[in-house]
C-alpha cells in the first residue's frame, strides 16, 4: 500500500531498549496512513539519518524513555544538515531527562538542539500525528 501522507523514520535512540511506546507509535502512524520505517531500539543518530536519506523521509521521530535523551540527541540536527537533509522535521518524545525537571526548560533545551517538536511522557500519539499533519501542511484527507 502506498502511503498518502508521508514517510516517518521512527526509533528509540541510544542505549534505550524501551520498545512498547515505539511499537504503539508505529501502529498509530500506520493507521493515520503514514509509511513508517521503524529502525527499532538502541538506534544511533547515524542510523536515523541514514534511514531518512534512504527512504526520502519527511520526518524523524525519536523516542527516549530512559532519561538520557539529552546526551543521545545532541547533534542530531547537525548530522542531518551535514547529510543534506537539514530541513527534515525532527520530533522527540518520552522521558528525555533524568529526574523531575521543569517541562518548559526541557522543551526549550531540545528545541535549541534543533528539534521541531518535543513531547513529554504520556503524550498520546494522536497529538504528535496531528502536529505532523500540520507541519506537513496536510489535512487528514489530503494526499501528499
From TrEMBL:
<feature type="binding site">
    <location>
        <begin position="63"/>
        <end position="65"/>
    </location>
    <ligand>
        <name>adenosylcob(III)alamin</name>
    </ligand>
</feature>
<dbReference type="GO" id="GO:0019553">
    <property type="term" value="P:L-glutamate catabolic process via L-citramalate"/>
</dbReference>
<dbReference type="InterPro" id="IPR036724">
    <property type="entry name" value="Cobalamin-bd_sf"/>
</dbReference>
<keyword id="KW-0413">Isomerase</keyword>
<keyword id="KW-0846">Cobalamin</keyword>
<comment type="pathway">
    <text>Amino-acid degradation; L-glutamate degradation via mesaconate pathway; acetate and pyruvate from L-glutamate: step 1/4.</text>
</comment>
<dbReference type="GO" id="GO:0050097">
    <property type="term" value="F:methylaspartate mutase activity"/>
</dbReference>
<dbReference type="InterPro" id="IPR006158">
    <property type="entry name" value="Cobalamin-bd"/>
</dbReference>
<feature type="binding site">
    <location>
        <begin position="95"/>
        <end position="99"/>
    </location>
    <ligand>
        <name>adenosylcob(III)alamin</name>
    </ligand>
</feature>
<comment type="subunit">
    <text>Heterotetramer composed of 2 epsilon subunits (GlmE) and 2 sigma subunits (GlmS). GlmE exists as a homodimer and GlmS as a monomer.</text>
</comment>
<comment type="similarity">
    <text>Belongs to the methylaspartate mutase GlmS subunit family.</text>
</comment>
<keyword id="KW-0479">Metal-binding</keyword>
<dbReference type="InterPro" id="IPR006394">
    <property type="entry name" value="GlmS"/>
</dbReference>
<dbReference type="GO" id="GO:0019670">
    <property type="term" value="P:anaerobic L-glutamate catabolic process"/>
</dbReference>
<feature type="binding site" description="axial binding residue">
    <location>
        <position position="18"/>
    </location>
    <ligand>
        <name>adenosylcob(III)alamin</name>
    </ligand>
</feature>
<dbReference type="GO" id="GO:0031419">
    <property type="term" value="F:cobalamin binding"/>
</dbReference>
<keyword id="KW-0170">Cobalt</keyword>
<comment type="function">
    <text>Catalyzes the carbon skeleton rearrangement of L-glutamate to L-threo-3-methylaspartate ((2S,3S)-3-methylaspartate).</text>
</comment>
<dbReference type="GO" id="GO:0046872">
    <property type="term" value="F:metal ion binding"/>
</dbReference>
<feature type="domain" description="B12-binding">
    <location>
        <begin position="5"/>
        <end position="143"/>
    </location>
</feature>
<dbReference type="Pfam" id="PF02310">
    <property type="entry name" value="B12-binding"/>
</dbReference>
<protein>
    <recommendedName>
        <fullName>Glutamate mutase sigma subunit</fullName>
        <ecNumber>5.4.99.1</ecNumber>
    </recommendedName>
</protein>
<feature type="binding site">
    <location>
        <begin position="15"/>
        <end position="19"/>
    </location>
    <ligand>
        <name>adenosylcob(III)alamin</name>
    </ligand>
</feature>
